[in-house]
Design goal:
Number of strands: 37
Number of helices: 16
Structural class: alpha/beta
Shape: globular
Distance between the termini: 26 Å
CATH superfamily of the domain at 388-609: Class I glutamine amidotransferase (GATase) domain
Mean pLDDT: 94
Strand order of the largest sheet: 17-16-18-19-26-25-24-21-22
Helix content: 25-40%
Bound molecules: zinc ion
Strand content: 25-35%
CATH class of the domain at 388-609: Alpha Beta
Radius of gyration: 27 Å
């Protein structure tokens, strides 16, 4: 957040500054005790995670070279193929397809586990039961997925199976039992679980129409399977619920089963203790999302207290180009985002490290993992110190708001809607000074009450888009149900329409910021918009100017008659708290064009209307992403800084150094020293009345500003 304190107050403060100095080049980590989060080996611990997705021919590897490549990269955890599409161990099960390249007298899995464990590397066994070999498929058609055209999907000789078929529902337990009984795995990973409807060429084959799906859906809902994906179809919405509940049910059965076989085994999956996600580029036309790893780590760490983020940087460009890597610079950014948001670094390769066709990134990988290993105490038992929680609604909306908050250096947590009101969440909502509800359209009645109560009890709420106009299931309710917003329940949906604006009046400027708005009277708005009426004591600003003439130039104007009474922003005192409602998708809009007027309005909502207090101020470039985490054992806190200046359109080049960024913040406790962990330098700082001020001389790729307490 930019400096909110007037210059005069800051000058007085400087007179009172206690100047401290620390010229030690490196911080002494030996005296730091980060404590433990819990007794597990994985939760809030410094893991370094490498996944090598082996092809069947990799089974002929030299195990010593393979394990040495993990050791050289400072890995502490590896994901290794064990079973499913191909058995990488000598299976005795008749319908578990043996890898034809596995040499008979070599126990590959056993050797790799032994040597990994000798080097302190945890072994995660990878299974993929989403396909079976065609030689098995012809014998077991009842295990297979059938597309809406009535055909199975055979991709390179491996045939898609259905989650409701006997392979995934029953036979998988035979495979797991055989493998887990034979080998001392540390964790189990399942690839491509759930309902898969597309093949590797992104060809969509539709909702599975196999007999198992038909019967199970009919038995649980009374309906026949839908043929088309259509959110407006109530039967499709039922199917969506069915998909979620049956996927969760199978995952839970697998978790229970593996715990029965070995209580110490953990699961790497959406429901598992290790919550795996992927950050990467895609074989798509859209611009790559440079905050992908930040999103993945935050949403896990801030939503689940008993699950650990296992984010992997996808080394490959996409599933269509498995053998060449993304830009090494975006790879470095993703690893930095993982670390500086509180997870361990992770990477996923196609194949082994030692036989990559594209090896440009490998020295950087070693260097980044080495940095994490050297400083692993600083990544142990840490938690976010953000005071703002961003509740994740539609993807474009929360991503646009993320982008805006990161550019403005406003620290935030990402909270998934599924954990609001649940015991899984690490922090209570009341612990946040402000919540941002980013176009959460689907809301249960209890979700509505939780948010209203949050405001009533003194919380600050910024809501964007179309909050709670649908039930949790997605059924349209066509009412605004959040009472805290201060608008009438009935509204009219104004669809996304070109040349639509919001008029800023002089009265609006006095509330939103005279200085900030002095040079513009109109804000572009190309989003759907809820035409709503403020009620009670709510105050509203900006007015909708819909669908103005935009051609020919001679006709490009609008008159006062075209300015409607519908507000572009509403603010309401509710109980002890306050809500601001932006009834359109300002986040998606900002993510799309980065519009200056929209950014100014968003900041005015936070600072002028909600008066969210600043706990962090900086003049750093918007190209620097910042994070702030503290040790739960009270040993330290740090500020992470990631340099995104290498991004030029779709290309990621080397970042340019950013010089002399001033930070001003209030640490949890008085501090005795500041060290720049990346630069390996001590840093002078000033400390007064609980606030610390320092200048970071230079940020090359990333920096970690470590504060040790007195
Ligand atoms: Zn099916």
């Amino acid at each position: 957040m930019k400096a909110l304190f007037p210059f005069s107050i800051r000058c007085i403060a400087i007179l009172l500054l206690l100047v401290a100095c620390n010229q030690n080049n490196q911080v002494d980590l030996s005296k730091i005790d980060p404590g433990r989060y819990d007794s597990t080996w994985y939760n809030h611990t410094p893991l370094r995670f490498i996944q090598t997705n082996l092809n069947e021919m990799d089974a002929a590897m030299d195990v010593d070279i393979y394990v040495q490549s993990l050791v050289d990269a400072s890995a502490s955890m590896v994901v290794f193929n064990v079973g499913g599409i191909k058995a990488f161990y000598p299976t005795k099960l008749p319908f578990h397809h043996m890898n034809p390249y596995l040499e008979e007298d070599i126990d590959l899995v056993g050797e790799v586990i032994k040597k990994c464990h000798e080097n302190g590397i945890k072994f995660i066994a990878r299974f993929d039961v989403s396909k079976v070999n065609e030689s098995i498929a012809v014998q077991k058609p009842e295990w297979l997925y059938f597309g809406t055209d009535g055909n199975v999907v055979n991709y390179n000789g491996e045939v898609h199976t259905c989650i409701n078929g006997g392979y995934q529902q029953e036979y998988v337990f035979e495979i797991l039992k055989e493998a887990i009984t034979a080998y001392p795995f540390d964790a189990i990973f399942f690839n491509m679980g759930g309902y898969q409807t597309s093949d590797y060429s992104q060809v969509f084959h539709g909702i599975c129409q196999c007999e198992n799906c038909k019967n199970r859906f009919r038995d649980s809902t009374g309906f026949e399977l839908p043929l088309n994906i259509d959110d407006n179809d109530p039967v499709y919405r039922k199917y969506n619920e069915f998909r979620n509940t049956t996927t969760t049910e199978l995952n839970q059965r697998i978790i229970n089963f593996i715990k029965t076989l070995d209580p110490n085994l953990v699961f790497q999956n959406r429901e598992g203790e290790l919550l795996r996600s992927e950050s990467g580029t895609g074989f798509t036309s859209g611009r790559d999302w440079n905050y992908h790893a930040t999103e993945n780590v935050k949403r896990t760490l801030n939503s689940f207290k008993d699950q650990t983020p296992n984010d992997t940087y996808n080394y490959l460009i996409g599933m269509d180009y498995r053998h060449t890597a993304t830009s090494p610079n975006i790879g470095k950014i993703f690893l930095a985002e993982q670390m500086l948001n509180g997870a361990g670094p992770g990477i996923y390769f196609m194949g082994r490290m030692e036989n990559q066709y594209d090896r440009v990134f490998l020295p950087t990988l070693k260097e980044m993992f080495g940095f994490h290993k050297k400083n692993e105490k600083l990544f142990t038992n840490v938690q976010s110190l953000s005071k703002i929680g961003l509740i994740m609604g539609s993807k474009e909306e929360y991503r646009g708001i993320m982008k805006l908050l990161i550019e403005e250096h406003i620290m935030f947590d990402l909270i998934q809607t599924s954990v609001v009101g649940s015991e899984k969440i690490p922090r209570k909502l009341e612990d946040y000074d402000a919540l941002i509800l980013s176009n959460v359209a689907n809301m249960s009645d209890s979700f509505i009450s939780i948010i209203d109560d949050y405001v009533k009890n003194g919380g600050k709420l910024l809501t964007t888009g179309f909050p709670g106009i649908d039930a949790e299931s997605g059924s349209p309710l066509n009412k605004i149900r959040l009472k805290s917003l201060g608008v009438m329940p009935d509204y009219e949906m104004f669809p996304q329409t070109r040349s639509t604006y919001l008029k800023v009046s002089e009265n609006d400027k006095s509330a939103l910021g005279q200085e900030e708005f002095k040079d513009f009277d109109l804000i572009m708005m190309n989003s759907g918009f809820l035409k709503c009426k403020p009620g009670g004591n709510a105050e509203s600003y900006l007015k909708l100017v819909p669908n103005t003439m935009h051609g020919p130039p001679e006709k490009c104007y609008f008159t006062d008659d075209e300015i409607t009474a519908f507000p572009g922003i509403v603010t309401n005192q509710f109980g002890n708290g306050k809500a601001v409602f932006i009834p359109w998708q300002i986040g998606s809009q900002y993510g799309w064009k980065g519009n200056n007027g929209q950014r100014t309005l968003f900041l005015a909502a936070m600072e002028k209307l909600l008066r969210v207090e600043s706990t962090f101020e900086t003049d750093a470039s918007p190209l620097i992403e910042m994070t702030r985490l503290g040790n739960r054992n009270g040993a330290f806190e740090w500020i992470g800084m990631i340099n995104h200046s290498g991004q030029i359109g779709d290309a990621f080049r080397e970042p340019i150094p950013i010089y002399n960024s001033t930070l001003r913040f209030n640490p949890l406790r008085p501090i005795k020293s500041i060290n720049l962990v990346r630069s390996e330098k001590g840093l002078e700082f000033k400390q007064t009345e609980g606030w610390v001020e320092c200048v970071i001389p230079q940020i090359n790729d990333f920096e970690m500003v470590l504060c040790l307490y007195k």
